[in-house]
């Protein structure tokens, strides 16, 4: 099992993938493609190796900063500034989401599986079937595709059903496998949403391995933890739980990929979280810059002039040797 998951990780880190947001860049010449409203996400053409990174920027009050230009943004690659070759925002760009349902045994407690389905219904309700797509996966000790990528959002919603939770939880292995599937998708605003109680018991891959792999292909990972009010961190009724013990690894995964960890212990939390996830995908800035030449991992940082702003973006990319 460790061999299989390690092979998957290696594939994630070195596979070129078809998407323009992948680590590897295109070698072509000519102007940047035009992007009609409502069509595919930006494609960048260049005679050099290019890297794209999607970034969400909020002000100190948590509002999206919608009117930034390339002159407001700085990209650091291994600490050195990179010239921005292209800079775009397109709120009409299509969104592609992979929903990962935790169906391990721990989800049978406190009707967590039902709560996960309800949370997924909120996410589906925010998608537009005219342009967006969704796929559904289930995992316990392995990942299983239950719905292929489709724009039949209503159909997916009616087919959501709870399986009998059983077995161990390989959450990080499942994210790595789903990230590989997402890397095969076209130029869309992509995200993985994991609906889970947040407790990993069986992954072969280490959290940091998965974080780096998902970051390298620019797929933000959102963890929507469905918990009981007793398990909700920060709530007055909360007690120390296994979820709190795993929260640091989940937060690290989200941070590396430009995603987030959201917790829902009542339906209203899930509704707010669903709107946040899809809104962030629609308000991404897509930034292109010339790749470094040194093989290996390149940590990157996106900054804006407004120092109080909060930027979320992937943490790096890989250059092939």
Describe this structure in words.
With 321 residues, the chain is an alpha/beta fold. It is 28% helix and 27% strand. The chain is built from seven helices and 14 strands. It has helices at residues 2-14, 112-126, 153-159, 171-183, 207-216, 242-257, 267-282, and strands at 50-58, 73-77, 80-82, 84-89, 95-102, 133-139, 143-150, 189-196, 221-226, 260-264, 285-290, 296-304, 310-313, 316-319. It has a six-stranded mixed sheet, with helices on both faces. α1 (2-14) packs parallel to α5 (207-216). The longest helix is centred in the last third of the chain and has 16 residues, at 242-257. The chain starts with a helix and ends with a strand. The model is unreliable at 11-41 (pLDDT under 50).
Strand content: 25-35%
Strand order of the largest sheet: 7-6-5-8-9-10
Low-confidence stretches: 11-41
Q: Largest beta sheet, briefly?
A: 6 strands, mixed
> What's the β-strand tally?
14
The whole-number mean of residue pLDDT values reads 81
Element pattern in H and E: HEEEEEHEEHHEHEHEHEEEE
Q: In which range does the helix fraction lie? A: 25-40%
Task: Give the CA-CA distance, first to last residue.
Answer: 27 Å
Shape: globular
Radius of gyration: 19 Å
Specify the oligomeric state.
single chain
The structure class reads: alpha/beta
Q: Give the helix tally.
A: 7
Describe the secondary-structure layout:
Layout: H1 2-14, E1 50-58, E2 73-77, E3 80-82, E4 84-89, E5 95-102, H2 112-126, E6 133-139, E7 143-150, H3 153-159, H4 171-183, E8 189-196, H5 207-216, E9 221-226, H6 242-257, E10 260-264, H7 267-282, E11 285-290, E12 296-304, E13 310-313, E14 316-319
